Amino acid sequence: MNLKNYIVAAFITLFCAVNLNAQKKKVAVVGFYSDKIIGFSELNGVGEALLTEVLKLRDNPDFDLTPMLNNYHDAFFNDYAKDFPFDLVPEKEVLANEVYQAFVPKYELDDEALKRYVFIDGYKHIYEGALGKVNEEAVAKMFSDIADGVLFVEVHFDLTKGFGIGSTATVKMKAFTRISLYDKTGKKVFVINESAQSKKTSVMVGGIPVMKTTKILPMCESALERLMKDLDKRLPKIIKKADKL
């Protein structure tokens, strides 16, 4: 290759690299939390009695989901983020935004209602999903000068049937994550819903699962760990199928 052709080839390579980098979109993560209310819709015939236990668990200071939520958060930003076809706006830049911190969303919860949630420090509870269009559009507009979209991340836990029947029946925990992306106008781009069951189980007593923190916390941790491992493997394929920003 002569010098002229070499220079032309080098210029084309550089141009393509710069152009590709310039086209990389940016997204701001605007929500990251977990729910202390354990669902039980998959268990039949337990109703009111179990709800009482679930509410007691929510109010128990020993039922702390913070460490496992922090682990998921770190994996999300350090590992899963690499699979997205866009870059994440630095978290500090998002959380330091005064407009974001002062934002009063539709369906804002009072202090009592907020006790059911565990947040990564600095994030607000902003409802998104069915009937959440006002919030989605407002937050997207809020960051439209630095981001091409906004992302919400949630974690929830539900009890589900294990094995056995009657006095030998057991339950497992199922961890869910919802990852929702909206463009800079607040239009939904994609929603990822993934779940995984715990390896650990708990027993039923009188048809009601034992709801002690020493039983429930390890089940939540087990379920979330399995979910995170599944995301490690599956997220790249899921993202390819999702609509691009």
Characterization of this structure:
The protein is globular and about 60 Å long. It is of the alpha/beta class and 245 residues long. The protein has one domain. The protein has helices at 3-22, 47-59, 66-78, 91-95, 98-102, 111-114, 133-142, 213-241, and strands spanning 25-35, 86-88, 117-119, 149-161, 170-183, 188-205, 208-209. The protein has eight helices and seven strands. The two termini are 40 Å apart.
Structural class of the secondary structure composition?
alpha/beta
Uncertain runs with pLDDT below 50, 5 residues or more? 3-21
- Shape label: globular
What percent strand?
25-35%
Largest sheet: 7 strands, mixed
What is the total number of structural domains?
1
The percentage helix is: 40-55%
Number of strands: 7
What is the averaged pLDDT score? 88
